Amino acid sequence: MKTGICLPYMKAGLTREDYMNWFRRVDEGPFHSVSCGERVHGPTYDMRILLAAAAACTERVKITPTLYVLPMHSAVQVAKEVATLDIMSGGRVTQVCVGYGGREQDYAAVEAPFKGRYGRMDQQVATLRKVWAQQEIIPGAGVIGPPPVTPGGPALLAGALGPKSIARCAEWADGLYAWSGDGNRAELERAFSTADEAWAAAGRVQPPYHLGGFWCTLADNGQQRLYDYVYEYLAIAGPEVAKMMAESVSRSSPDRILEALDNAEAAGCEEVFLVPATADLAEIDRLSDLLARRGH
């Protein structure tokens, strides 16, 4: 199982130096890939710019957006951004996660319609692939570049949760990004089993790629900081939901994180993203030591 790490993008006050340190340490570490999520509200940094900086300042790790809330954007612009990111990384953008998103406030803030986002994304995925294949979008206007390093563009993984959404994505996705906040084996197994069945029902020959993720921390005072991070992350959903989820996470010690990694591998993860709760450099160093201990 390959292991990636998510950049800190939810913490206010981070500087260029902070991110440069993260890029260097991650690239020197045992991580297969680096990712970043997308949010509008809160003290969040822009996913595209952070990943572009990571692409320019690293040499080894794969660069994976996790994920584009695709219906909030122009598909043509996303196709251009991803292709450019692939070039700037030297061909290290081999997969991109896309999802519908559930935060109506984020849609409203960027003046994108929340209603109809499911059908819209089906059409947008087709547009992404047409642009990457260098097919015209506007007849007679020519192709839209640049072409990505990988002919036809990166694999598209669906960040979907429910059975209906997963079944819909089985028509076009190359895999599933399954999320379990506390690294629960049963949750991940359920998601991957649902995806496997949906892919088979859709007549897909190639089974879906299994990507997973969970929250964790090895920073000092870790459990409290993990609680605070998850609460802040979900505060937009209301205090009851935020409190319930924050109380459900526990991966704040080496043994607990090792257990979650074992859970992910046993559930069928081919790759898993660790999402640290803090921007402390200790997260990278201690996770690197933990992965070495696990025999990564």
What does it look like?
This protein is an alpha/beta fold. The protein has eleven helices and eight strands. 46% of the residues lie in helices and 15% in strands. It has an eight-stranded parallel barrel, surrounded by four helices. The N and C termini lie close together (8 Å).
Subunit organisation of the chains: single chain
* Secondary structure category: alpha/beta
| Large-scale geometry | globular
Strand order of the largest sheet: 1-2-3-4-5-6-7-8
**Discrete helix count:** 11
Note the beta-strand portion. 15-25%
How would you sum up the major sheet? Answer: 8 strands, parallel, barrel
Show unreliable segments: none
DSSP summary, beta strand count: 8
Q: What portion of residues is helical?
A: 40-55%
The run of helices and strands is: EHEHEHEHHEHEHEHHHEH
Mean pLDDT: 96
Our Rg estimate from Cα atoms comes to: 18 Å
User: Roughly how many Å apart are the termini?
Assistant: 8 Å
